[in-house]
Amino acid sequence: MNKHFFSVAVTFVLLLGFAVNAWAQPRLTASNQQYMEVRSSQTQTFGNAFQIQITLEGNNRNYPNWSLGTILNQPITNSEGKTLPYGKIKLKLSAVNGTTFQQIGSGTTAVPLSAPGNTALLINSSNYALKNDNSQFYTQIIFTVDVILEGGSYLDALKTWQAYSINLAFTLLDNRGAEISRSSATNGIQIRPDGSYTTPASYGIQVQNDAKSGLLELKTMNDYVNGASVTYTNGLTVTAATPYAIQVRSSSANFSAGSKTLPVSIVNLQLSAATGSSSITVPLAETAQTVGQGGSTTSSAVSYKYHIRYFTKANDSRLINAVPDTYSGILIYEIIPQ
Question: What is the pTM of this model?
Fold first, then answer.
């Protein structure tokens, strides 16, 4: 009989402690509001797509420097298996009730979604504390959340009657970054097939003829003293229907010949437009570097040609002290739409 009574008493105390802790903590509730429909390739803002409600109950409660985050729970897909890139979406707190953005000190900047499972902060360390004093029992703050979808020709391939599901968790964090409360909400975004969309522009980049196997030879003492050079006329062709940039990078930090290596920076690249006098010169590097820009928005793709020049500088001690051999490496040219 005594054992039975003891067991019931312990259970009661644990439940009471849980109830007090849950009641003392701020509570976050998220909900979806306005359904989102896309009808063009333009950047669009969907007002009041989500709503966040933060409630604090109880006297003498104080949560300073809290933060508000959002987490994409899963990829943004539809029933057809198509995926809307999360990097094209930003969230923005557009309105607040119960305080002001000025008091909070942040929250008005549009924030890109992070990869699924990662937190993006909508408010970072609020200056406005969540608190109730001895005479105050209840506090509530309500945020309106807008969704901003980046425009672009990529939307043409994603148009469908089947809505994409945006499943977001909103989290309330304390001043140490620990999660206090979390709530999820799902909204739909439909990229309507009957909208007006921009067809993706075609792009291309090609290294021509002998330039595909670039060869820079240092055969005489003069090549070491004054530098060596080789030029491939019209060695690079770019095709684009919009402005573009050309980038180049090496696949590694060194040229190699068996176990011997030389840094790729011993060779310089000058890329010059076949028409006009513009040119850019850089030492080769493993990091991508912009070596050309051009193009304009046109109804169809246009071809642009460039001369490629590789050269070494005079009296480079790295070359003078190098073991003679045939050193090789791979260069990668890329076109970046602007």
Answer: 0.58
